[in-house]
Request: fold
Amino acid sequence: MSESKVTPDACSAAMHENDHATKALGMRIISTTLGGSVVSMKVRQDMLNGYGSCHGGMIFSLADTAFAHACNSGNKPTVASGCTIDFIAPGKEGDTLTARASERSRSGKTGIYDIEVFNQNEQLIATFRGRSYQLKGSIVPEVID
Amino acid sequence: MSESKVTPDACSAAMHENDHATKALGMRIISTTLGGSVVSMKVRQDMLNGYGSCHGGMIFSLADTAFAHACNSGNKPTVASGCTIDFIAPGKEGDTLTARASERSRSGKTGIYDIEVFNQNEQLIATFRGRSYQLKGSIVPEVID
Amino acid sequence: MSESKVTPDACSAAMHENDHATKALGMRIISTTLGGSVVSMKVRQDMLNGYGSCHGGMIFSLADTAFAHACNSGNKPTVASGCTIDFIAPGKEGDTLTARASERSRSGKTGIYDIEVFNQNEQLIATFRGRSYQLKGSIVPEVID
Amino acid sequence: MSESKVTPDACSAAMHENDHATKALGMRIISTTLGGSVVSMKVRQDMLNGYGSCHGGMIFSLADTAFAHACNSGNKPTVASGCTIDFIAPGKEGDTLTARASERSRSGKTGIYDIEVFNQNEQLIATFRGRSYQLKGSIVPEVID
Reply:
């Protein structure tokens, strides 16, 4: 990822500040490093589907948020072009799910990120692979010396 | 899909009744047929991400719900094993997004479903392909004559 | 897709001329239209896997070739950035498999294409979704009036 | 993966013996362990596409073969239900590509495997994620004491 004087934490904070959706879902941005992030979410009753398990869309939302913080950590505005998720085990009400994102590759305007979602017992809940596409500009203004 | 005396509408109603997540997101199940469904959702402020667009997880949730109603329409409890989504255009606050699901194939315990998400101007927002896995039992009890 | 005076057939012919791999696999480019193509291949013994079915890589190769002819039909050199394939039924020795590609969306430098592979009995063998990325230049030189 | 007295190497050898496709492509099964495998292939002229790079279908075939050896290593006949591949960098004529497969999860009849393809300079060429589905029976007869 190209050099920026803005830290991954500052990028992350700027993104999260206006992110209504992740706040509504009670997500916590645990950490952000260059190309990586950790985000957690507690499964509430209003996240359950008709089978009483965490709705797949909520698990996806958690992974997608970790993906966003990882691929935007270099202060280049970057969006998801596509994602693949595989569901391994259900999430249950009261579970704390944690998504860990890491950069697999980045070249030109595109990148590949892997995100794994675990529950509080370190059981694998889902694997997610995201494809990123970099836009022009910067998230936080770069200060030129 | 195998024969059932329970209608797709009845399966859909039984699933939706206890689906806290789709109700919290204000989704409407417009219609369910054997192997298909149409579900809509209005993009609210609490669904926006840090870029002011509809969070990808919310678009995924809508498509995933249409997928669930389509693949459960034959009264066989069926879950998502995995999904792939490609984001084509952003959703905006106030948009009404509609997901249309259709069965591409189903054999043995697995199936493939295609879901497309459009906005109120019939602009394609996302394409989604879901893989289903059928469990034992039935959603609504089958009445035997 | 942007306007070009070069026909889809001419793009297709130029691509196929130097395509050693598709020739080695005996593929036939049946037709190419703007955003679409049809390609067929007969399953030979040297395409079988250890289970006596057509190797998944050969089915993928057929679909990927149809994808390439579809996404290059506008005379803009375009490559695959990623693909998802789902295998529905096995291909058998002697089968003639046909892949039909169609453009789902294209905007900016990226596109989404759906390819379905059928056997000679119109049985669905595999579904394939491809993501394309457009490079600079043209396949066949554009003549300016 | 469930216990078997048949070694991963024996499963691999039994599979490879009748695998016409991988032999035609000159693949070498470097190693097979429980849930993992390493397979290599030299890029020949008859594997090149119209752009002079290794055809995506050939890279997929290599990864898919590594996937097959990994998911069949426990002596349970297992097939690919679906795969996602992302192309990172092109393969060139004369390159030796190596695919390394590892099991991400396996429960019930389904599993998730990650395969990465590198060239001889350890440059990442493609990432591949495979979904497996276990059939009945065994690859090599189990000897009961």
Observations:
- Chain C has three helices and six strands.
- Chain C has a mean pLDDT of 94.
